[in-house]
Amino acid sequence: MLKISNLHASVEGKQILKGLNLEVKAGEIHAIMGPNGAGKSTLGNVLAGRDSYEVTEGEALLDGVDLLDMSPEDRAREGLFLAFQYPVEIPGVSNINFLKTAVNDIREYKGLPPIEAKEFLQLVKEKQKLVEFSANLANRSLNEGFSGGEKKRNEIFQLAMLNPKLAILDETDSGLDIDALRIVANGVNQLRSQDNAFVVITHYQRLLDYIIPDFVHVLYDGRIVKTGPKELALELEEKGYDWLKEVDTLNA
Amino acid sequence: MSTIVASSLFQQLTSAYQEVETTNESSLLKSLRQGAYAHFEQAGFPTVKHEDWKYTNIHHLVNKTYVLNAEVDIANLDLSKADIPGLDAHRIVLVNGQYVLAFSSLDDEVGVVVKSIQEAVEEIHFQKHFAQHADKTGSAMVALNTALYTSGIYLSVPKNKVVSKPIQIVHIATGDQEFFAQTRNLYILEANAEAEIIESFITLDNTASNLHNKVTEIVLDENAKLQHYYLQLASDTGSYINHTEVYQTKHSLYNNYNCNFPGVAFVRNDINVRLDAENVESHLYGVNLLADKQLVDNHTIVDHMKPHCESYEWYKNIPQDEATAVFNGKIFVREDAQKTNAFQQNNNMLIGDKSAVYTKPQLEIFADDVKCSHGCTMGQFDEDALFYLRARGIGEESARVLLVHAFAFDVTSRFSNDAVRAYVEDLVAKGLEE
């Protein structure tokens, strides 16, 4: 589904990703872990198309379509979703109006007519339950005055509404208490299917107790230096990342 | 007729005044015109040397000649540019500031008087209030209007009357002659009366350039309530200088919603509210979405003269391209006006590298037990918000429209009329696409 080859990217002239390779197949969940500054969030932002990140080399194909030449909105319409580490507050834009615009813009791209009002509301009602999101929150301005946990739940709510092929969760667990973490993880688990895939970026093993990955990758200094089964996360939790410096040197 | 060929509007006005002097108007009116003309003649048109006109140069507008009392063809006027979807309203039409057409549906509103200002001289309210409020500001443009207005609307709502639906006043500019028009309006709401007035400014296709100097005086008696909309939709051949003077007595409420959109070349609004009794409430809202080389200047004065009054002012400017927005908001809190609650905010979103905003919030407080706040902000598109919306599949254009709507939301959400609100939001979306 997603195939990233030899991806190099920089921010303000500073090279962050230095030849990253990753392949994700439909139905899989991949976790990406790594120390601060390794390039985890850069990966998410580069794939989603944030302006300030410059791709200097490599490609990223989503079902054979090269994402890197596309506008952010077209990437989303092709089925990519980035759950933001820091969701933006936009006072004056209602959550529902925002979602309806997004759903319809994506449908238009796919040559579908706008969604029926009734069908849309039904969908909202159904997906809200997934993240235990109240109607009150859904009707408020986008993320305005939301707690950290509510913002992250809103990201998963949007994910559920837009039903992407590939979702990247960028440190969705940061700032969550244990109850919110459980709710978010439950949401993701109910959404996973044989037709979609998830890339879960996280610092901590904790989230992976709830969302069980098929693979764990360690990102270090702009490259994936180690890949293993879910047990690798536990090993990292125990040993930290320092020992990877040696692995990295050995690989180099 | 003067035999001298005029080379400027000022000269034209001088000869026009000499003609007016010879008409057989009432002595009251004559002496008002006399005093006003003397004032204007001495002051002249304002220039950028006047602090209040520093960023708003009218030299190019007045340094030429116009037809002063142009013949107007009022047959088959196309009013569709003023249509507001879903709005059921009475209509009054003012053509080139000369002709007043009141639609007959107004007859159903018992006691409401609508007539041209020329026909209103005998009205008690006219005799009591005409030129008693706006002229006190010392404005040369108001003086010019008092001296030489030709037509306008007189509207009064009797005691306890709640007008059953909004009254839309359509100001049309039309014709192939370049004209200068001066209209004078007087709106009176007697005690406990309530009304909603929506004024739309439109230009018919192929209209020659036109300049307007309009003055509106509004008097709200005890507990009267007026919702007042200005929807500026004229095209780039139009230039408007509007003065609105509102005089409020106790427990009255005045809400002004001032909206300007791409098109009209030049707008200068002076909107002044005088809170001359206790427990008065006034709200001034503005949404100005500009484009091309437009200049829109909104000067407001909120004058707290008595205790226990509340005012609330919020203006949002969104200049695109090379457009200029000017905001000057003055709040006076007089010595008597204890327990005043005054709020003012001006937010600006500059789109376009050559757009400009000049803003000046001013507070002058002479009382010591008051709550006042003012502030202004300058900004551009929030790039993080734009990216967030686009990352959800929303196209860049739609995302920008959503963000501008969000920016204007503090103001549009306070519109009392849902049809007008939807209409204004739609005009904002259209104004961004062009």
Question: What proportion strand of chain B?
Answer: 35-45%
| C-alpha geometry of chain B | globular
List segments of chain A where confidence is low: pLDDT < 50 over at least 5 consecutive residues: none
**Average pLDDT of chain B, to the nearest integer?**
94
SSE series of chain A: EEEHEEHEEHHHEHEHEEEHH
The Cα radius of gyration of chain B reads 21 Å
Total beta strand runs of chain B: 19
Biggest sheet overview of chain B: 10 strands, mixed
Low-confidence residue ranges of chain B: none
Q: Compute the number of helices of chain B.
A: 8
Order of helices and strands of chain B: HHHEEEHHEEEEEEEEEEEEEEEEHHH
Q: By helix and strand content of chain A, what is the structural category?
A: alpha/beta
Largest sheet of chain A: 6 strands, mixed
Describe the structure.
The complex is a heterodimer of chains A (252) and B (434). In chain A, 38% of the residues lie in helices and 28% in strands. Chain A contains 9 helices and 12 strands. In chain A, the strands form 3 sheets. A 6-stranded mixed beta sheet of chain A has the order 6-9-10-3-11-12, sandwiched between helices. In chain A, helix 6 packs parallel to helix 7. Chain A is globular and about 60 Å long. In chain A, 44% of the residues are buried. The mean pLDDT of chain A is 92. In chain B, strands 2-1-5-7-9-11-13-15-17-19 form a 10-stranded mixed beta sheet, covered by helices on one side. Chain B has a 9-stranded mixed beta sheet with strand order 3-4-6-8-10-12-14-16-18. The termini of chain B are far apart. The A-B interface holds A 48-51, 71-73, 75-77, 81-82, 84, 87-88, 90-93, 97-98, 101-102, 105-106, 109, 141, 158, 162 and B 382-385, 387-396, 398-399, 402-403, 405-410, 413.
